[in-house]
Design a protein that fits this description.
Blueprint lengths: L1 E6 L13 H18 L4 H7 L1 E12 L8 E12 L4 E10 L2 E14 L4 E3 L3 H9 L2 E8 L5
Parallel strand pairs: 3-7
Antiparallel strand pairs: 1-3, 2-5, 3-4, 4-5, 5-6
């Protein structure tokens, strides 16, 4: 399973002194981009190919609080993907120790930044996506590109 250790920082906190909802979305994007970078797709490669991930939907579930300077483990799994890779569901889970504190499920596609339309990922990127560990509720998705 892909995982990274993160810290709940000052800017991640809300008025109630726990991690704000949008901080979980930010940390999810960070873990996803770290995975892509570790697979040979750093931001510079996406820019070179004029390709980028585009989030179409996020769902956040909360289980426990996370406080300032807590070390949290962020994981990444594949909750669904279409045959052509044009649509996928990426699942991030956040743990404080062994305790699940939050889960983010994002429906994601790929955008050609020059044409401004949804596209299929290149085969080398699709291969890395397909290699991600599947979540327990993994499901096949319809293609987004016609």
């Amino acid at each position: 399973m892909y995982e990274k250790n993160l810290v709940a920082g000052w800017g991640d906190m809300d008025f109630n002194a726990h991690m704000r909802n949008t901080a979980y979305l930010d940390k999810s994007a960070d873990v996803r981009m770290m995975y892509f970078s570790d697979c040979g797709f750093p931001m510079s490669e996406f820019m070179r190919r004029k390709l980028g991930p585009v989030v179409m939907k996020d769902e956040v579930e909360y289980f426990r609080e996370c406080h300032l300077l807590d070390v949290i483990k962020g994981t990444l799994t594949l909750a669904g993907i279409s045959d052509d890779g044009s649509r996928m569901k990426l699942r991030n889970e956040f743990y404080r120790g062994e305790v699940l504190v939050a889960r983010v499920t994002s429906t994601v596609g790929w955008i050609d930044q020059a044409q401004r339309k949804l596209v299929c990922p290149p085969p080398d990127l699709l291969g890395h996506l397909q290699q991600l560990e599947h979540s327990a509720d993994f499901t096949a998705l319809p293609n987004s590109v016609r």
